[in-house]
Amino acid sequence: MHHIIRAGIPYGPGVTPEESQSHMTSTSLERGLALVAYQSNIAQGFHFLQQVWINDANVRLGTGVDAVIGSAGNDPSSRSRTITGLDPACHRRTMTLQNDFVVSPLY
């Protein structure tokens, strides 16, 4: 069984109305979201999240593979994937990501 309680804690200044309207922000500001997680088994919990939830396109109502750290597969020519849930005004709107957001080197 995989028990997890998780929460995101924002830090730094919020986005100003001007930044929101222009879709531009300063890269010199320290802001983001910190993850806090309590798990019944830390090793198995993260393994489960990474192997099952993050790369399962149907884990949450068919929203797609995780947009930030999910992998669409090992073949670089088939990396594109379609996700939903990113538009707060229309959660069913789709977006196709052509490349992986996080790329790690092969060792």
Automatic annotation (TrEMBL):
SUPFAM superfamilies: Dimeric alpha+beta barrel (SSF54909). The lineage of its organism: Eukaryota, Fungi, Dikarya, Basidiomycota, Agaricomycotina. This is Dyp-type peroxidase. It comes from the Eukaryota.
